[in-house]
Amino acid sequence: MMITAVAFLCALLVTAFLAFGKFARSESWRATVTPLASIIGSGFLICGPILAREFGRAAIIAEAALLLIAYGAGAVIRFNIIHVENYLAGASRNDRVVWLARATQGVLALAYAISVAYYLKLLAEFLLKPIGIAPAWHGLASNGIVTLIVLAIVALAFGNGLRRVEHLAHGTVSLKIGIIAGLLAGLACWWLTGATADPLPPAQIGWASIPLLLGLVITVQGFETSRYLGHAYDQQLRIRTMRHAQWIASAIYLAFLALLTPFLGRAAEAEGVAGILDIMTMVAPALGVFVLVGALSSQLSAAVADSIGSGGLMSEVTQRKLSVELAFALAGALAIAVVWLTDPFEVVAISSRAFALFYALQCALAFIVARRTGVGTPRHYIGFAVVGVICLVATLIGAPAEG
After folding, report:
1. pLDDT band at 195 (very low <50, low <70, confident <90, very high)
2. CA 306 to each of CA 26, 37, 113, 116, 151: distance values in angstroms, whole numbers, following the listed order
3. Has this prediction a pTM greater than 0.70?
4. Residue 282, domain extent
């Protein structure tokens, strides 16, 4: 009872502060919230059980490595916010860098479309988890839910109602962060009660672990949205707030996994991507409700945001030859195809590969522009090459976790 009360109070206070506080209305926070909300979807919820199963007690080390890769990719994009944006502003249409930048946008549009499948597949899995549907019908029900939601999003795009949904989705950000704070407080309270912890599973680290880890890139993705907020914020603000978003997200991921340590044994045995529900319900039944509400709201808002991003980018890459509505329909068709042709773990890996390719292309852009403009140093070139190679390897071998 005490755990539930602490979690609820903490969630309420944080949500109220972010929704109504003076700080929350500042330009700096608004610029931070966009990438932060994208990074912290339900990724941090599915990472615990998956990493516990694949890495045992070394799960937090694996998470730290994943966050470090993401921070390296973020550093490349922060470089591009200034130097690539400035270069493209004065480049001719036939410049190869312009064509590469356009190809990069095309890849991002496809990555967003695939991520819609990832977000909604997770939403369906969390929605079906408490129902306990028969295994024989689970896949059909999950895919059917995703298909209906995608068709609804596409219909809203054609009916000019998507912007209203987008505003509603953005309004869930404060609630989502508040729920995360409540979960962390609940777990911390469990620690303070001195409850007995389970034996930790043995560490499992080897060469086979690398593809599995790289297949989880999607769970820490989202910081790149700052790159495309130039219409609203200046370069220095985007760079600073993107860095802050990654710091906050990293702290939340590591804190959550650290507080989850006593349950790593049970997490390793949790079934499906929504296995965290079982663990949190065991800590306190009400925390399961927290997880469910947080997962559903975050996945729906992320799916809407990425649908908008995918449709807009597809239209922009084709120089408006493809209407935004038709682009939405194509992105929706791709998302539906991915959902029906893969299982939840494969969707995670495919989405990760798509974003890893985008980050690799961003590294190539940074390298070329740095050489052409002379702003690069040996440290820059080495960094671009290292991050680019890691992202390229993730694109080629990122593998799904075992179901």
Report:
1. low
2. 24, 12, 7, 6, 15
3. yes
4. 2-397
